[in-house]
Amino acid sequence: MQMKTLLAGSALMALLAGCAGTGGEQQGTDATGTTASSSQAQTDTRTYTGTLPCRNCSGIALTVNLQGDEKATNPQDRTFELEAQYQNHPQNPPTETYSGNWDVISGMQDDPSATVYELTPSGEGQVYYFERVNDSTLELVDPQLRRFENGQTLRLTRKQ
């Protein structure tokens, strides 16, 4: 179990570190592959943006669009689009775009009252976990729902 935790955490950190070996990164379904096209989904969209640290570049510009309500009983009513752009990376990898569904998880290892959004891409791509710090801030957390030591730098802010 600890080995799986270590491997999952290492994979997540590799993405954040911008260790793209080539421009041939795996890409998920693009925005045109989403099924959320109703006007209600459009009005319920919340957009969060931020720049995550990157070892080999000046940062990873991340944009997350969440559509739907966390209180929805059907997870299919909650969709997301995530876009990651490596800024000034020496290998100039393409923008990574993922879309799929998101779910709500109650509690984290160090905070049982926390709310975490689990973003699961359709097709290929890794699952992302974001703690809802408050209505305007999300923080990337690891798959075991633990905060990273540099959590302040892993935050996305809601656009108005």
UniProtKB/TrEMBL annotation:
Keyword Signal: yes
Region (Disordered): 22-44
Alphabetical list of InterPro entries matching this protein: Cu-R_lipoprotein_NlpE
Keywords, alphabetical: Signal
Record organism: Kushneria phyllosphaerae
Lineage top rank: taxon: Bacteria
Entry protein name: Lipoprotein NlpE
PROSITE patterns the UniProt entry points to: PROKAR_LIPOPROTEIN
Low complexity: bias regions: 27-44
